[in-house]
Structure formats: structure tokens, C-alpha cells
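Title: [Solved] NAD(P)H-dependent FMN reductase 3D structure

Original question kept below for reference.
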Amino acid sequence: MALKLHIITCSTRPGRVGPHVAQWFCEAAAQHGKFEAVPVDLAEFNLPVYNEPEHPVRQQYQHAHTKDWAASVHAADAYVFVTPEYNFGPPPSLLNALNYVYKEWNYKPAGIVSYGGVSGGLRAAQILKQTLTTLKIMPIVEAVTIQNVFTLIDENKHFTPIDSHLRAATTLLDELYKWAQALKTLR
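Solution (posted by the thread starter after getting help):
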């Protein structure tokens, strides 16, 4: 049975480009062949600002949106966060979603596909890694960084990667697979 990779679109704002980048990466992961690639869009979960009465470590969720999100997070063996950079950091929608659950994240690896302007979302990726480690997620070093993302999306909203993105995606997926296999033994 293939390891399940959730490719999470992290921005939820109207007009976002994340779904177009995530669609490309999902196709790249499927072509890679070592994972069952599953697209996950935070916008579809419509998580309000954290509103559970119990601490997430207890897993005593009261709200349907939390139960649905927890089931999605639990189902994955690995994650790729497709994230923009907002004010030098990850979007609030992603930080909120990370904070909703705890044990469901533990002992799983994560890669980051970041995008933005000239920095390609690097600052957001670096800050995100601190939060991931607190959730016992292993953020891998390999990443895809997409600079000036708007120049790579055509009028039909199709993202066209350049060669360096394709190479980085393969490298990320190869390394993520190694970590996913190893960390599965801890769960």
C-alpha cells in the first residue's frame, strides 16, 4: 500500500494562486509514483479561529469542522504544505489549522512548496519549520521555492513550472519518501 501524501493548499483568501501550484505539485507527486497523492484545500474545511474548548492533545473535539480536519490530518503519512508568504511569515489560515490538532501530526515528515515574489516564500518556510517541529513533524530540508509566481500562471490559471522547480520537486519527493518510511515505524 502506497504511503499517503497530503498536499495542503494553505492560503484560503479569494483570488489565491495556491490551488494552481498545488495542482501542479499533486500531478508531480502522482507521476513520481511513490505516494498516493491527495490534494487537501484548507479553504474547504472553513476552520474558524481556533474554537475548541479542550486542548488539542486530549483529542476531545466538540465541533464537526475539527473532527473532519483531525481525520484528514490523521489519514496522511506525510505532508507537503503549499504556502505563500504573508508579511514574511506563513498565512494565518495555516497556523490556525496546525494548531487545531496535535497528535494527528506527530511523527510524520513534511515538505514545503513556497511561493511569492522575489523571495519565493523562503521567509515563511523558515518560520513554518519552527511550528512544525513543535508538533513533532519532521520538516525536511529539500523544498520547492517559486519566485515571482504570478509570472508563471497563465490567463487560464495554469501554473507552468520551470526546470528548477521540476528538479526540486523530484528531490523533495525522494527525500520525503525516505522520511515517511522511517517515521512510520514510530507511529
